[in-house]
Amino acid sequence: MTFAFFPDALTRPVVDPTLLEQRLSTGLMSIAMNAQREICVLQKAGGVPTAPEEVLRLINVASILVKDLDKLVEVRLREDWEGRKVEVR
């Protein structure tokens, strides 16, 4: 998950920003997690200072989104597997 930060303190970070939003932002934070909520990579680029509480909040948001994405991928893989016909001769 990628979050874009903007200079206005009232603007909340945008999750998965578009290219335009990335270019208009003053900083980005990318969090790579697995389904078990383990952080694999956390990268913060840009000059916007971020409080530790905000980083923890964004990690919690990312963990929820990652779980949902993991479920979606599992369902699609299961559908694909069931749709394949394998013949052994």
Task: Describe what this molecule looks like in 3D.
With 89 residues, this protein is an alpha+beta fold. It has one domain (2-83). It has two helices and four strands, in the order ββαββα. Strands 2-1-3-4 form a four-stranded antiparallel beta sheet. The longest helix is centred in the C-terminal third of the chain and has 32 residues, at 52-83. It starts with a strand and ends in a 6-residue tail after the last helix. The mean pLDDT is 91.
Key structural traits:
4 strands, 4-stranded antiparallel β-sheet, alpha+beta, single chain, elongated, 24% strand, 2 helices, 89 residues
Quick description:
This protein has 89 residues and is α+β, with helices and mostly antiparallel strands. The chain contains two helices and four strands; from the N terminus they run ββαββα.
N-C termini distance: 45 Å
- Topology order in helix (H) and strand (E) letters: EEHEEH
Largest sheet: 4 strands, antiparallel
In round numbers, the mean pLDDT is 91
Provide the gyration radius in Å: 18 Å
Strand order of the largest sheet: 2-1-3-4
Shape: elongated
